[in-house]
Amino acid sequence: MTANVADPLPRAAAPPVRRGGVPARPVVAVLAPVVAAAVALAVHFALPDGQLAPLSWLDSLPSWRHPYPVAVAAVAVGAILAAVGQAVLPSLRSAVRHAAPLVAGAVGLVIAWEVVTTKLNWLHQPFFPGPDEVFGAMVEDREILLESAWHSLWLLAAGYAVGVTAGLVTGVVVGWFPRVRYWAMPALKFVGPIPATALIPLVMTLWKDSFPCAVALIGFAVWFPMTILTSSGIANVRLAYLDVARTLGAGRFYLIFHVAIPAALPNIFIGLFMGLGASFLTLIVAETVGVQAGLGWYLRWQQGYMEYAKVYATLILSAVFFSTLMTVLFKVRDRVLKWQKGVIKW
Known about the structure:
Layout: H1 2-6, H2 24-46, H3 67-88, H4 93-119, H5 131-140, H6 142-176, H7 178-191, H8 200-206, H9 210-235, H10 239-247, H11 252-263, H12 265-286, H13 295-304, H14 308-336
Helix pairs in contact: 2-3, 2-4, 3-4, 5-14, 6-7, 6-9, 6-12, 6-13, 8-9, 9-12, 12-14, 13-14
């Protein structure tokens, strides 16, 4: 009875501890990328190839110098350095323990990719090359891929800026003025759902240059979600905020730019995210409208020659490219809407 009164709540079992006082599960999580990389290298070098790869520049190199095993070895070395770093610097432990299982999972997916293609030949050439061939194609065409990524970034930034600016202006006007909303909302519901790619014949008749055509397509894809979300946020600002500001003598300009827009920022950022996703989808198609560089242009070019290793290399680079831009927007959102932490789960 004395024990129950002193400690009425059952205590959770302590995590298993290895020698030296380090919990076993974090050690397993931190070392998971090293184990996954070792398995990837063992599969690559120990199992025989069932898929006959086409001739390429990789044939002149020993197998251990191919880009794929070098990249896997680099992952292993980086994971070891991260494990040592988080043991020495406590400030790194949270980030390393969070990222290590994700890295191990990504390496596991690459292992499965190599097994079903290069090793077992369940997915056949030329449509399903293995990672060794894809990484080799990425290294071989690295200069043109980087140049294409730069052109895509420039085109995406121009179209996204046009769409965001137009969507903000339209959304604020539609959300703030009821009479404008009465006439504009039916038109938005009618025009907005049209896919941007369906407007290719129209924009090609308006501009002879391919760059404005692509910018217009991306801008239209971004404009609609930006307008709808911004107008919704402006229209649903709490009346109490506006009444207090009016009581203090605020005019219309102040109410819009210092009360309504800041209060609508959560909705505006949702529109930014939706517009960014729509711009990614439109970019690849827009780059086929006579553009002479870009990831979409390079993808279509290599597909025409059935160079599917280079097609997959472009897809991987596009995924990294788009994911990085989305991460940057998340960071901006986290900084601007810092006050939402603890109120809304991100």
